[in-house]
Amino acid sequence: MNLVGKIFVGVIALMSVVCLTVSAVSYASHHSWKEKSAELTKQLNDAKQTQQTLTSQKSELESKIQSEAQIYTAAMEALKTKADALEKANDELKQKNEELQADLDQRLAVIDSNNSHIDDLRQQLSAASIDLATAQNLRANYLQDLARTMEKLHELSAKFGDLEEKNTDLVASYDEALTVLNKNGLSADPSDYSDLPKFAVQGTIEAVREGNDGLLMISIGSDDGLSEHNKLDVRRGDSYLGKIEVVTVEPNRAVCKVLPEYRLGVMMEGDDVYSQKFN
Questions:
Q1: What is the pLDDT of residues 37-86, one digit of tens each?
Q2: Other C-beta atoms within 10 Å of 159: how many?
Q3: In the listed set 87, 105, 131, which residue is the last one of a domain according to the structure?
Q4: Cβ distance 230 to 243 under 8 Å?
Q5: Would the pTM count as exceeding 0.70?
Q6: 87, 114, 133: which is the final residue of a domain?
Q7: Residue 184 carries which DSSP code?
Q8: Which distant-in-sequence residues (6+ apart) come within 8 Å of 117 by Cβ?
């Protein structure tokens, strides 16, 4: 209830009291009409005075009500302006929200595409992990093979060192043998000794037959390592007499022929027969 309503309720209540008072006075008028009339006149004057007061208050209240109505109207206009502004802002926010929703939908589509790409990358990563594990296994096997190869290489290097040392010894022995051969006027070509016995042999001439250029019987045979077509040297003391070739061989003797192209002297019984390998 606003202020005007309260004022009207107060005025009505006051008028009801006045009417009740007048009724009570009229009811008691049988005692003294004159006194009652004077009293009623006084009450009427009081009521008029009260009415004037109330009328004045009503005017003031109406003025206040009008002022408040103007203030209310201005407030309503301001609220309406503000509501229009808010509605406009709401429309702008709605439009912006639609734009944001469209942008969000676009971003979600991009995210879905990225998720699909990520799934592809994960599959590729899984395949790459399998390939990496396979490569690591191959690398481990390769390292094991490399370790074994290096171990063999070290062994071969050690053997190579031993072979180099032996080769050095052999070269030294070869140089020494070559010096000895050169000193004794012998050939260093291995093909010149391809017809020598397998082992170094030494014997003597036991008999000479069919002249100086004929056949000889020597004291060594197959048991000593001789075989047919072996060639032997003949000397007498420090004198070199030439070469003979084995024609037939027996376990403890052999028949040889004199090779004219190598003959440097007459061969006789008791002369020494030997191979070039014999020291």
A1: 788 888 888 888 888 888 888 888 888 888 888 888 888 888 889 888 89
A2: 10
A3: 87
A4: no
A5: no
A6: 87
A7: T
A8: none
